[in-house]
Structure formats: structure tokens, C-alpha cells
Amino acid sequence: MSNQLCCSRSSVPWKSKLISSLDRNKHLMYSRYVQLATVREDNRPSNRTVVYRGFLNDTENITFITDRRSQKVEELRRRPYGEICWYFPETREQYRFSGSCIVVHSDGVEPSCHDSSSSPWNSKSCHTDPSLAPSVLSGARQKIWSILSDPGRAQFSWPAPRLPKDIGDFGSLSEDLGAAPGSDPESETAVSEAAARNSKEAAKVRKEAEEQRITIVPAEAPAPDSFSLVVLCVDEVDHVQLFENSRTLYKLATNSASDIKEDANADVDLEDVSGSSALNKEEKAVKGTTMRREKFWTSLEVHP
Questions:
Q1: pTM for the whole thing?
Q2: Tens digits of per-residue pLDDT, 119-168?
Q3: What is the Cα–Cα distance from 106 to 93, expressed in whole angstroms?
Q4: Could you state, in order of their start, the residue ranges of all structural domains in the chain?
Q5: CA distance 134 to 104
Q6: pLDDT below 70 — which residues of the chain?
Q7: CB-based contacts of 206: which residues, under 8 Å, 6+ apart?
Q8: Strand 227-241 with 62-67, pairing
Q9: 255 with 293: CB under 8 angstroms?
Q10: CATH number 3.50.50.60 given to 5-156+225-249
Q11: Which of 8, 124, 173, 207 lies at a 20 to 30 A Cα distance from 300?
Q12: CA 102, chain centre distance (Å)
């Protein structure tokens, strides 16, 4: 077992390995399918398959897309953390990526980087990271929308996830399923009223709903409100290589106060990446010194 190794954030040790794994498994259509785990309101695990949509620009943050009305969005709103499990059968490798999740909607980003609440997300202070600026995230969302296939874009015009297909049964099932996250209460009321009419009228409503399922918003048009981008800000990676019987753990760390770099010719900058001061009043009075916390990746080889 080796000692712990450190590297700068500009060199992400696991990223090139993942790119290589993707390249060696690219002939397998499902090699871009990953399992995303979140936590439900009752603290039970929630898992589903999503499609890898690439890194966010030049960062190590992983992206995928989702329907804003889906259950996972509501779960990430309560607890903005997720973990991806990714297996490559050709090379017999497994990656697990964990970290905080940002969900990018048509009208903003959540959880808010500028939220003044006591959410654990605020310790990340993402407003200090230019790669996570709202304008950058919004642009990434629209870019991914523009390159989706027609069937991929069509699914965001479908009825809300988890709504019963049989509108006639909507009233009896609504109490069990609850309102779909992000859905319009007025539209749900309209559906319930339609279901209460005679069977002919209900059949007409069902037909119209099915026709809406094949509506395709053009690629060059603004992405619809139902389309959201999810960014997993990776801070831990677990990489297992079965052929080599090896396992490496990677973790994003922040240097200690004693490691803060100093530049005698620079102005004072006393904020760390969390947006809070790491120094006392006397140290703040020191002039001509730049003190900034930096992030870096550590790696540790362990037994599989």
C-alpha cells in the first residue's frame, strides 16, 4: 500500500483514467449509462439510471440531464448530494463519484450559491468558482439541449413523470402518489375534472395527452422549463480495476492555513474558498500579502 499522494487541482489524476475507460468501451452503447443515487425524504435510498453527458466545460464536474418534474430533483432540493456508480464491462472497471449536485433550470440554479441559509452547500461557496457561475451553467444547459436527438428532446414534452396513464384513475391514485414535483396544480385540477366527465370525454383527454408526448421542441429553440441540467461537483472518487486487482481512492482537499501561499507584492486577500475569513484581526492587518486557500486532489492506493 502506497503513501498518500497529492497533486494540484489543475491536474485531476482520475479524469484521464475515466476518459481512457470511456474510449476503450465506446463500442458498447450502454457504456455511458450510470446509476445515480440520492436520498429520499424518509432517508431511504433512491437510485436510477442516467446518461453521462460529458464534463462541464474544462472542469472535472460531471453532467447529465433530467426532467424538472422528476423525483430526483425534489430529493436534491432537500439534500444536494449524490453518488454515481459506473461499471465498464470491457475493461472490468468500476468508478464511484460522489459530491454535491447543482440543478440548472430555465429560471435559475438550485441550491442557490448565494442562499443565506445554513445549508451545507453554502460551505462550498460556489460563487467564488467562475466555472459554476449562473451564466456558465445556463449556457451549458442550452448547449446540451441543442445537441439532443429528436426523441431525446421529445420526452420533455411528455406528461409529468409518475402521473397515472389512465386519467380515469387519477383521482384514486393521486393520494398515493402525491403531486408531481414542479407540476402545475391548476393543470392537475383540470385533469381531475376531465376524469370526472363521461368516458367519451375522458377518452378524448387521454388522446390529447398522448399526442402531446410526441411534440418536439426544435434544437435551436430555448430549452423548455421541464428540461434541467444536473452537475455533480465531484469531491471523492473510488476506482476499482478488477483485471489489475487494484483500487485507488481520490479526494478533493483544501490546504491548511500553514500551507497558504504568500506573495509579498500583492494586495491582501483574506477570504478562503468557503467565503469566510481564516485569519484573526491582527493577521488581517498585515499588508502586502495574498493568502488564499487552494484545492488539490489526493490519491491513496488501498486493497480492493
A1: 0.71
A2: 444 434 454 689 999 999 999 999 999 999 988 998 998 888 988 877 54
A3: 36
A4: 5-156+225-249, 161-212
A5: 8
A6: 1-10, 112-128, 167-215, 256-293
A7: 166, 167
A8: antiparallel
A9: yes
A10: no
A11: 124
A12: 5
